[in-house]
Amino acid sequence: MFPTSKIKLIAYLGIALSAISLFVHLFIANSSAGGPYKVHVDDLYPVQKIWHRRLWGPVSSLETLHPIANATPRKKHPAPSGDNGFIYAKIYGGFEKIQSSISDLVAVSKLLNATLVIPEIQSSLRSKGISTKFKSFSYIYDEDSFISALSKDVVIVKTLPSNLKEARKKTKFPTFSTKGSESLNFYLGRVLPKLKESKAIGLIVSQGGCLQAILPPTMIEYQRLRCRVAFHALQFRSEVRALGKRIVGRLRDFGRPYLAYHPGLVRETLAYHGCAENFQDVHTELIQYLRKEMIKKGIIKEELSVDSFSRKRNGSCPLFPEEVGLTLRAMGYPLDTLIYVAGSETFGGQRVLIPLRALYPNLLDRTSLSTDQERQAVVGPELPLPSDIPYPPPAKPSDELLEEWKRAGPRPRPLPPPPARPFYPHEKQGWYGWIAESETEPTPSLTDLRSTAHRLLWDAVDYYVSVEADAFFPGFTNAAGRQVDFAALVMGHRLYQTPSVFTYRPDR
Description:
Strand content: 5-15%
GO biological process, one term: fucose metabolic process
GO molecular function: glycosyltransferase activity
Distance between the termini: 70 Å
Pathway: Glycan metabolism
GO cellular component, one term: membrane
Keywords: Carbohydrate metabolism, Fucose metabolism, Glycoprotein, Glycosyltransferase, Membrane, Signal-anchor, Transferase, Transmembrane, Transmembrane helix
């Protein structure tokens, strides 16, 4: 009996010690964390501190760097006068093209000593029935802060003088369609004489810029001016900033850092770099159709069909979400990492994010961190649009039907074939249903144009959240190429504002 009793005693003692240890650990965890998700770096063990710093930074050697573009210019320049005339511009494209084009327009205005009229953002002007509170430039940005921030560099006005407005309506002023990287000689040799002669010119900017990216060393102040425009003068309007701050605050409420991820799966990017064969079925056709249109416009100087797999291997195509997830896991980011998915367009929809969500369940975006009412406050009051759904013809009254029956001739007679039933939008396989019915992409509907305008706002919100993130990981960036992309803008802003935080640039 003694051996059996001794074993029981040891077992009871082990259970009691385990229970005491469990209660002690729970008490320490509850008192030190202060609630769920309240993890503080200072409370971690030394090894965990090192691991946390390796994943989230900051980088000690870069903490002493500070932005200088908004400091007093190193060389004294005369006050801007804008005596040579007015420059008005139309900007086409998405958020990233608008953001970079405005910086170039300000630099061009200073180069030509011209007065810049607030640029017109065509993606918002083409939309019908959007909020009358915000129009064109003010749909995204704060006009007053933009003008005041650059008052020492360029003269900026909201509209043309009344006499020049009438002349513009009659197309009396020369208009130049610019390329993405026009040279200084183009402006000084061709544009400036016309500006002095007519006192106003128009610029059409559609490729994400209108001035060469790298200027001579003697024009360093123009490069600094570009930075002042992009990182200081271009402030989002208050409603956009408020939603961005609210989303960042809710991410911070989890008590741990978050990583912003931009997939880079944009149809225009995929078409430009020839990545169609990396997708399947209808998505490949959609990319190839857009690539063919870009070849017609002279944007692409290559063949329509290229080897997408070799492009993928040499890094010309975006990383797929599953590749990003595996990379983050290999780098050591834990399963509960908060990942904010930025960008208003992910080609292929939520389906392509399923593998990443399987690796990292805490995948969030603006829709999961804000309410419909909060997003509607950013959009503003809008007029209702007519429905795109085709309605059947109105029913005829019974007496009219009876008269038609009497006039129909002798009976019996065969019944007429039923009318062709129209296809309704919800019966098609998503927004790409046109490709099964037509050789050409249909003209955007009123709903499409409004959605395009809304995407500018959602990109602006996501831009704000991505700049404030503890780490940023792009699925694609083309900072060294001609095509401007969202991730390159975010990376530039982060490296300028806080270079010590983690901003990844993976080798695709």
